[in-house]
Design a protein that fits this description.
The complex is a heterodimer. By secondary structure, chain A is an alpha/beta fold. Chain A is built from 6 helices and 9 strands, in the order βαβαβββαβαβαββα. Chain A has a single domain, classed as fumarase (Alpha-Beta Barrel), CATH 3.20.130.10. The model of chain A has no long low-confidence stretch (mean pLDDT 95). By secondary structure, chain B is an alpha+beta fold. Chain B folds into 2 domains: 118 residues; 122 residues, no CATH class. Chain B is built from 8 helices and 9 strands. In chain B, the strands form 2 sheets. Chain B has a 5-stranded mixed beta sheet. In chain B, strand 1, helix 4 and strand 2 form a beta-alpha-beta unit. The longest helix of chain B is centred in the N-terminal third of the chain and has 20 residues. The chains are: A alpha/beta, B alpha+beta.
Chain lengths: 200, 291
């Protein structure tokens, strides 16, 4: 497990040297987006409209935070990752069009995203699901929030983060996928597991 | 004190306890999993989980940003006064808890996509009643996150598939779920009845204490065997590979129709949040999960 610190904007050279199983910590700017935000981003792209935020070279975090407004400022209380697979239908287009360099989430993503990551030198880092208080401590400041009309969880938040991690590289820009490897191994072990049952 | 106000206060406290502090049995099971984990990445996940639990408890902050869709399980004594006010009190409690704790607004109208921002809506909070003898009201608050809910599975199996088929379905469900339900999970298995009964039983199974084996010896043996099988898949903490895929498997069953063999698998993420209290007939409140 190699430990790597990354600063935003993340460069192509940075992601190219990442390999599945590496542990990374990100410092700089991170944007959140989940289901509804992805849908709206694609609608903007489709309509040729300019987005109110710039993703290029930045990590896109699958996260719907719990935040509180205090004295005209947002305070993030809990900001763990959400299940990335729900964004599978949209993510390849987002990567291809917006220059996102790192996807942060949990549970991994599918073949379409993996292809886009290969083509555009992007990677996927998994943050521990549910570790939301720890994540919020690594968010130093809310720099901006857009599309609050979608609800607190679905809005696009811009966070300033300090050593955000540990993120496990689960998909790299060379087409490797840690989740797929784990699944393949499980499928292979299955006959042995089922065969080992005592009760018929 | 106004009896309705008592129910509201108790339910708000239960929600606060549930989302900020994990029950002892869950914490202990996670610590044990950390000690035993052989995968380096898996161990790191469990370390982060344990740190997060401690931090949430210390700062009284929700463990996970997904504070769930809220259910209440009630055991109401038939002599408990004001039973007709309980459900409206629970709605008020959820609205207040959303602001006070706070909870993430998690109820979305499936047709309009509107979110009333107070965690209530049609059939939410979901309330499940059991009427028992006596004059007290036992309330369990059960906020459940969406990630582990989305991997729940139901299969209407053929009776000839037998217990072996059932086991294969459980193992398949765990492999298909991968890292999505935030393992190590607690897995509830509901067997028999009809489709709704099987899933209801699977959900109720999630509420049992981790270390208490099933009272039915056959079911208890089955639980042990399923846990061993599930942990042999190597899915591991957060689906990144390792030993700890599940902390426990809990089984509940109902008699089935001769032609049917429904099996439901309910997943509970490692943040297995629940809290119980009893309001006694004299108005005294006793908190059972966190004293």
């Amino acid at each position: 497990m190699e430990q790597i610190e990354l600063k935003t904007p993340i460069l192509v050279e940075d992601t190219r040297r990442l390999a599945v199983g590496d542990v990374i910590y990100v410092t700089g700017t991170v944007l959140t987006a989940r289901d509804a935000a992805h849908k709206r981003i694609l609608q903007f792209l489709h309509d040729g409209r300019e987005l109110p935020m710039d993703f290029s070279g930045l990590p896109l975090y699958h996260c719907g935070p719990l935040a509180k407004r205090a004295d005209n400022e947002w305070v993030v209380l809990a900001a763990g990752p959400t299940t990335s697979m729900r964004m599978e239908a949209f993510e390849d287009e987002v990567i291809r069009n917006l220059g996102v360099r790192l996807i942060i989430g949990k549970g991994g993503m599918g073949e379409k995203t993996s292809m886009a990551m290969k083509d555009y030198s992007a990677a996927y880092g998994a943050f521990t699901g549910g570790a939301a208080v720890l994540a919020s401590k690594l968010v130093k400041r809310v720099k901006n929030v857009e599309w609050l009309d979608l609800g607190m969880a679905e809005a696009v938040w811009t966070f300033e983060v300090d050593k955000f991690g540990p993120l496990i590289v689960c998909m790299d820009s060379h087409g490797n996928n840690l989740y797929a490897n784990v699944r393949k191994k499980a499928e292979k072990t299955k006959p042995e597991i089922i065969g080992g049952f005592n009760v018929q | 004190m106004d009896p309705e106000a008592t129910i509201v206060d108790v339910a708000v406290n239960l929600l606060k306890q549930a989302v900020t502090v994990l029950p002892e049995d869950v914490k202990n099971a996670l610590k044990k999993a950390y000690e035993k984990e052989r995968s380096q990445i898996g161990k790191l996940q469990l370390k982060v989980i344990l740190e997060n639990i401690e931090l949430a408890e210390k700062t009284a902050t929700p463990i996970c940003q997904d504070t769930g869709l809220i259910s209440f399980y009630l055991e109401a004594g038939s002599d408990f006064k004001n039973l007709e006010k309980v459900e409206s009190a629970l709605v008020k409690a959820v609205q207040r808890a959303t602001k006070e704790i706070p909870l993430r607004p998690n109820t979305v109208d499936p047709f309009t996509q509107e979110n009333p921002s107070d965690n209530t809506g049609s059939h939410v909070p979901y309330v499940r009643w059991r009427i028992v003898e006596g004059g007290s009201l036992r309330i369990t608050a059960f906020p459940k996150g969406g990630g582990s809910e989305n991997t729940c599975a139901l299969r209407m199996m053929k009776p000839s598939d037998g217990l072996r088929g059932l086991k294969e379905f459980v193992v398949d469900s765990v492999i298909n779920a991968g890292g999505m339900p935030c393992p190590p999970t607690i897995i509830g298995v509901g067997v028999g009845g009809g489709a709704n009964i099987a899933m209801e039983l699977a959900k109720q199974a999630l509420m049992k204490p981790i270390n208490e084996p099933n009272l039915n010896t056959q079911a208890a043996k089955f639980e042990r065997e399923l846990l061993e099988a599930v942990n042999k898949t190597g899915i591991g903490p957060m689906g990144l590979g390792g030993d700890a895929t599940a902390l426990a498997v809990k089984v509940e069953y109902a008699h089935r129709h001769p032609a049917s063999f429904p099996v439901a698998v309910a997943f509970q993420c490692w943040a297995a949040r629940k809290a119980t209290a009893v309001i006694h007939a004299d108005g005294k409140v006793e908190y059972l999960t966190y004293r």
